[in-house]
Every structure is written in structure tokens, then in C-alpha cells.
Amino acid sequence: MIVSTEALFKHAYKNYAVGAYNINNAEQVMGLFRGNMDSQAPFIVQLSKGARSYTDKRLLEAMIRAADEIFPDAIFAVHLDHGDEAACMDCIESGFYSSVMIDASAEEFDENIAITKRVVDAAHKKGVSVEAELGKLGGVEEHVSVDEADAKLTDPKQVKEFVERSGCDSLACAIGTSHGAYKFTGSQGLHFEVIEEIARLLPGFPMVMHGSSSVPQDEVQRINEAGGALKGAKGVDEGQISKASKMGVTKVNIDTDGRLVWCRVHRELFRDKPDVFDLRPAGKVFMDEYAKYIVHKNEVLGSAGKLEDVRKQVAG
Ligand code: G3H
Ligand code: 13P
Ligand code: ZN
């Protein structure tokens, strides 16, 4: 059942975090839904602008509708990840999305507010909620390239004004993470002082953590042993993710880890079975392995086992 992102946030806030997982193809959709059913977790399925144009947005959306039928007990929201204004408006008009992210974080403060507010005004008329971004993550996003040195943590002093003036429903905060497989060197980690201060200034307001993949080191090692070259890949410590989920970080975005599972499965299979050229054997292993990854991640987030309680809240 597709539900509002708001309902999921209300249930989770400061108790656990909802996993927001990116999808690009049918195998990811199947693994994602299976994993969430196996761990009895509510979740968010999110589509980036790039994912929507990889095959065709209608194909991806149809797969989600089909998964909703195949897994009738699943409870999830559908979200546009890293949209620009045009993509947000397209998703709002479609009537299919629970929420959209307007990423105008590369703009100056006032311009970010102005763009976000235009999206909020259109979205709220249709019952769609809006995630905005303030601050700059390191790493590379699809339409925003931010140099590592330029990464700027969210300034808690700006957050209240930003939220009040823009009307956004949740906020992607730069708290030390970056997108992709190379997030940290040495002992860097999350900036809990920023999370704490935002939660103090805006109690009850959901924060979103982008760049939340933990880049499992066993995956990296297996990829490298099977011919990959991921040197120094490092993600967010899972203990830190758990801690953040109790402090108001309510949506945790994960894409890279799924790509790593995909890469490991395919590299190992074609290394070990050089006679295989069919796509289904690898696809089957990937679906199983991705489902297992989701089960594990939902344990870390604390969303595992929450499905029936969410159902009661949504139904009641
Ligand atoms: O934050 C970005 C997500 O990982 C989506 O990546 O734009 O390559 O689909 P993508
Ligand atoms: P990762 O690259 O850490 O998986 O982050 C994904 C993300 O933030 C999607 O919006
Ligand atoms: Zn992101």
C-alpha cells in the first residue's frame, strides 16, 4: 500500500529511521520489496531524475505499481530523489508520488527558499509533501557537482527561517556525509552537534540524511578480489546511523550500497562461471542478496518489525 511520507515520518520520528532506497530496475524492485517484507519494515522507494530517464519513468513507476500488487502487505511511500523544479512538478502532477525532493541547495539561501516554496505550493495542493536541502554535501550529485572542499555543513541557525519561509516538510541536512563510495578518510563521521541543534530548534521536524551508505568493507573486498578497483572506499559507520535515527534523522537515503551488492554479485558470478552468459542467474542471486542487505539495514535503522504498528496507525 502506498502511503504518505508524512505518515511514515510521524510514526518513526526519534524512534527509528525509515530506509529510503533508490531503484533503477526490476531486480532492485523485487529485492527491495522482498527484503522489507522479510524484515516487516515500512520503507520509502525513491527514484532519482537519472533513474527516471534510465529506461523510462513509466516503466519504473509501473514496476512499483506491480510490486504493490505482488506484495499486498507492503507499506511504503514513493519519493522523487534529487529533483529539480521541472521534475518535481512532473511528479506532483502525476498523482503517483507521496513526496518529492527539491534540491536547490546549490543556490543562494533566498533563491533556494524561493524555488522550494514554488514546489511546496504546488505539492501541498495535491497532498504531496516536500523535502528540501540546506547546506552542501560532498561528492557528486546528478545535476549538482560539489567539490569535496566545498562541502558545507548545514548551519542550524538558518534552518528555522528556511523551513518557515519555504514551508517544506522535511529537510536534507549536510551533517558530514557525501554521496558515493568514498565518504570519509580516517576517523571522520557524522556531526552529531549539528543534528542535535537542529532537533532542538525544530522539535518534531524530520531530518533527512543523504549519503548514508555504509559501504560494507566485505563487499568492497569481494569486489576487489573479483577484479574491481575500489581503493579506500569508506561509508558511514552503522552505529552512527543508529544513533542519528534516535535524534530526529527520520529518512536515511541509501543507493551506493545496493550498487555494491549488484557489482559484487555480477563480478563473482562471471569470474566463477565464465561459461555463463545468461542474465538470469546473476539477477536471481542479486535479488536474494539485495533482500538480505535490506533486512540487515532495516535492523540498523530500527524500522524492522514496525510494519504492523504502522499499519494500525495508517488504518486508524
Ligand atoms: O543521491 C543520488 C543518488 O544516489 C541517485 O544517483 O542520480 O545516479 O541515480 P543517480
Ligand atoms: P549513498 O550514495 O550514500 O547511497 O547516498 C544515496 C543518496 O543520498 C540518495 O539520495
Ligand atoms: Zn542524495
Description:
With about 325 residues, the chain is α/β, with parallel strands linked by helices. It has a single domain (about 5-315), classed as TIM Barrel, CATH 3.20.20.70. About 50% of the residues lie in helices and about 15% in strands. An eight-stranded parallel beta barrel has the order 1-2-3-4-5-8-9-10, surrounded by nine helices. It has a two-stranded antiparallel ribbon with strand order 6-7. Strand 4, helix 6 (about 110-125) and strand 5 form a beta-alpha-beta unit. Helix 2 runs parallel beside helix 4, helix 6 crosses helix 7 and helix 9 runs parallel beside helix 11. It is globular, with a radius of gyration of 19 Å. The relative contact order is 0.17. The protein binds glyceraldehyde-3-phosphate, 1,3-dihydroxyacetonephosphate and zinc ion. 1,3-dihydroxyacetonephosphate binds near residues 180 and 256.
- Distance linking N and C termini: 15 Å
Trace the largest sheet across and list its strands: 1-2-3-4-5-8-9-10
Could you give the order of the helices and strands?
Answer: HEHEHHEHEHEEEHEHEHHEHHH
Number of domains: 1
CATH architecture: Alpha-Beta Barrel
Q: Which spans have pLDDT < 50 for at least 5 consecutive residues?
A: none
Stated plainly, the CATH topology is called TIM Barrel
Number of strands: 10
What is the mean predicted local confidence, pLDDT? 95
Summed up, the helix count is 13
Q: Report the portion of residues in β strands.
A: 5-15%
Class by SSE composition: alpha/beta
Strand count, sense and barrel status of the largest sheet are: 8 strands, parallel, barrel
Evaluate the radius of gyration: 19 Å
Q: Which ligands occur here?
A: glyceraldehyde-3-phosphate, 1,3-dihydroxyacetonephosphate, zinc ion
CATH homology group: Aldolase class I
